[in-house]
Design brief:
By secondary structure, this protein is mainly α. The longest helix is centred in the middle third of the chain and has 26 residues. The radius of gyration is 18 Å and the shape is globular. It starts with a helix and ends with a helix.
Amino acid sequence: MAFNPHLEVVLAAIIWGSTGAFVKYLDLPPTTMSFFRLAIPSIILFFFLSTKKVFLFKGNNKLILFASSLNVVRMFLYFTGFSLASIANAVIIWFTFPIFVLLIEITILKEKISKRQSLLILIAFLGIIFMYIDKNLSFSSNDFIGMSAMLFASMMNAILIIIYKKVSNKYSKAELIFYQNIIGAFIFLPFIFFMTPLPSISQIGVATIYAILIGVVGFGLFFSALKRIKASVASYLSYIEVLSAITIAIILFNENLTWNIIIGGILIIVSAALLETKKDNQNVKTSTKEELGSYI
């Protein structure tokens, strides 16, 4: 018997929120974390698609493979962000990506923008400013480098969302996830042997569990729920990921939430969530989470 679909999204969001904890616990280089995150789902999906007799790399796949190449950069920046910044700072900055999606649609795709959207974008960027208030704006500060890496990862994520929107009707969700991961899996493979420290047997085991939880279980729950509830509802519930990540950070890593993190986080998350409403996204039929095909 299937779970309640709302509960499935909540469970998926909680699982996604564990990323920072896995990164901090494993303490492996971003390249190593990227390899496990991309390679394990690629292997699982390859065998899954093979059983379905899906012929991969058929036809013109230039755009989707270009997106997969961009995902290499995104993943490296993403794990760099979690490695150097606090979990709370990293996950809040990551959730600026809906704002960047809208900015791309406005500047490049020439979508119309309402006054409400303009205000929400300004509020979101005000939130980013609050997040940086107490930071030493120097490349000697790990928190500053980590947050900046995550901000660029969020921008890259916005670009990928736009690309996946364009090609989503040509591929199944399983194919989208496979293509998204496959190039990075090969590119990051050599770093396993040349980056130090080399992962231990236990680290390999935990990293594999992480990749399966995020890339397979989390998305299995999320896409199962999408069959029975509106994408907009699933998108809103998925913001529980932020609460999950911050709760884990406080309990397991004794992170403190300063006043500027709280204010900045509220401004960013609320603005991003409101930008995903039907009124503000009347030209977009599905949520950014659904169109992405694969979350981190």
